[in-house]
Every structure is written in C-alpha cells, then in structure tokens.
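Hallway conversation turned thread

IA: we were arguing at lunch whether anyone had actually written out P-type Ca(2+) transporter end to end. Turns out nobody had. So, for the record, here is the sequence (442 residues) and right after it the structure tokens. Reply here if something looks off.
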Amino acid sequence: MKKVEDDTVHAHWKGAAEMILERCTHYYDLEGNVNSLNNFGRMKFDQIIQGMAASSLRCIAFAHKQIHVDPGVKTAVEDCQYAGVNVKMITGDNVFTATAIATECGILKLNEEMDDGSVVEGVTFRNYAEEERMEKVDKICVMARSSPFDKLLMVQCLKKKGHVVAVTGDGTNDSPALKEADIGLSMGIQGTEVAKESSDIVILDDNFASLATVLRWGRCVYNNIQKFIQFQLTVNVAALTINFVAAVSAGEVPLTAVQLLWVNLIMDTLGALALATEKPTMELMEKPPVGRKEPLITNVMWRNLLAQAFYQIVVLLTLQFKGESIFGVNEKVNDTLIFNTFVLCQVFNEFNARKLEKKNVFEGIHRSKLFLGIIGITIILQVVMVEFLKKFADTERLNWRQWWFCIGIAAASWPIGWLIKCIPVPEKPIFSYVNWNKLRCM
C-alpha cells in the first residue's frame, strides 16, 4: 500500500502470531512508539502467544514493512526503456504489492491498472486461450502471483512473437525461464548454483543497474563486429575485383601474393584490433533493439562498403592501365604505387568504418588511444615494407611526390564517405526484396 502523506510504500502481513514474530525486528508499544525487538521482548511475546493458545484462542498477528526500492533500479529501468527495451516484472507477490513496486520502479505508469491488461495474475495468464495470450502478452507489464511455469510461458510467448527475450532470476525455480530465454542473467551473490548454470551471464554484484551496462556493452560488441565486417568486405571486394579485372585483361595481377598476404595481415589483425576495441557510447542506447531476423550486414553497411570499394577499384584500375604514362615510371614502380595506394586507402577507410551512420568519423577519437596507436603502427610498417623490404615485398622505393600522391588519393575516401552518408537507404533489407522461393523453383 502507498501512503498518501509521505508517498512511501508499505507491505502488510497477517497470519499465525508465532510465524509473524519470527520475521519481525521491531514492535509498537501501547503509545505507538517503535522499539527494537530484542531477545527479552521476543520471549515475552512468545509467552503471551502461548498463554492465549492455552486458553483455546486463535492468535493472529499483524506486521508491516516499508519497502525501499533501490534507486539504481529505477535508473536502470529508465535506461532500458530509453534503449527501446520493454521491461516486464514477473513476481510471486500479490497484485497490490507488485503494482506498488512496479509503479515506484517506473515499470508501470500511474494510470495503468489491471483493467487495461497491464497487470495480470499468473493464474489468469495461464488460463488464457492460446490466441488471447499471444494477443495480450505484449501489453502486460506486471504479472503477480506467478509460478515458474507462468514465467516460462511468457518467455515462450514473447519468443513466438519474434522478440529477443532476456530474463533475470536468482532461484532454482527460475532455471526453466533462464534456459528458455535468448539471454539468461542470474545473480552472483543471492543466485543458486542451478540458476547460475542455467544462465548465460552472471551479474556478480547482484545490482540490477548492471543490466544497463550489460545492454550497452552487448550493443557495443555487436556494433564493433559490424564495423569490422564493413571494413573487411571493402578490402576484399576491392582486392578481388582489381586482381580479377587485371588478370583477365592484361594477363597479370598488380597485387602479388606476398602483398595480398601483407594486406590481410595488417587489416585482419591490426584492423580487427582497432575497430573491435572501441568502447561503448551513450548513442548506442538511442538505437532501437536489433530484431531476431534482421541481417548482420545492413543497408547502411552495403551503401558504405560498395561506395568505398567502387572508388578504390576505379582509382587502382586507372593506375594499372594508365599509371606508367601518367607518372612516367616503369612497371615495377607503378605496381608499387598501386600496392601503396591500396594499403593507404584501407588505413584512411578505417576511420570511416568507426561510424556506420554518423558523418563525423572523428568524434571521440581522442579517447581511442589504441585505435590511433594501431593506425600509427600500420603506417610505419607500410613505410618499412615499401622502402626497405624491396626483395621480400617485390616493391620499389617511391619519392616524396609519389608518396604524397598515394596519401592524397587515400585521403579522398574521407569526403567520399561523408557524401555517401547523405544518401538515405531503405530500412527494409535489400535481400528481402528477392523472392528466394521463386529462385529455388527456377
């Protein structure tokens, strides 16, 4: 119950006097003062209860407790809701206690009650017909008086509707729902061993606020994977196309096996390390959750990587067929120009890959010390490869004019990336327009 005077929430119990007494730490005296219940006081109350029982009287005790919701819980709920996550509370408490706590936490709005379907009891949810349950499950915010089966049933219904479901729990009874959920989170301190084994993530400090941290880091890892995939596909598409076209038209390839191995080494290893270690930002919480069936490579990624790959292909094929006449150099120097330009294009494009959608790719770069360090190491290794490992890399030394040309061509990927991000893309995935069933029949 919520007191109007001070806006505090109290839970009330009544029952067998000896059982209520075991759970109490304070008592009210005849004047209404609250006193601590020590061993002497507890023994005195026991004697009163036993005396009443000896007189064939039924002794009932009443108790209450003010419920303090951890302020971090409300903040965590708000963070999750801000990130587009729908938070539901499933509890064994009675409906009034559950409603009061859910309202204080921000899970339930003040005007939401049982009448509009936001609050249900487990038995009611359990007895719904299948169609009615599927229809109402999205709207339910609080389920009171629920059993472990009710929790499992809700998880199954939400998954059937295509939602990605995360469940928190600490008891043995929670293990079926933790296993069924896409992501099970158990509590490290209060959680049972069964619950921990059934979960995917263990929250060591038992702090509900850690859920927002888990959500932010999860999105960060997913976003970093997308960044690296976009970057890596750009490298592979450009390298494959350039070598294929050159081999078909001229019978030779500009990028040797050693050079391609070098590109893969610095891009797969150092590039992955640079992009995969970006720390989470609050802007990740502004995006809606990723659906279960959404592709890993989005339309935005296709737009970015195809534009950069096309630019690199055009420039490098121009150098392949016209480079010797443009710069007045021999074939070996021209091949070195192609190799050096290609690598530097990837270095500059690594900055573009930092932000899939935002135009300002340098935002927060001063906090990414590892990223800047890896970029510096990559450039140094490339200089060593071109200038000092001629026999190993099959390259020729370049003069300052040729180096500045390679840098200028590579740096052009920045304004190209900025312009490309001005082009809107449809939200519906590209490949969803293809009728795969029809293609199979053909």
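OS: looked through it. Strands lie at 9-16, 26-28, 34-36, 60-67, 89-90, 119-121, 142-144, 166-169, 183-187, 201-203.
IA: good, adding that to the notes. DSSP finds 18 helices and ten strands in the chain.
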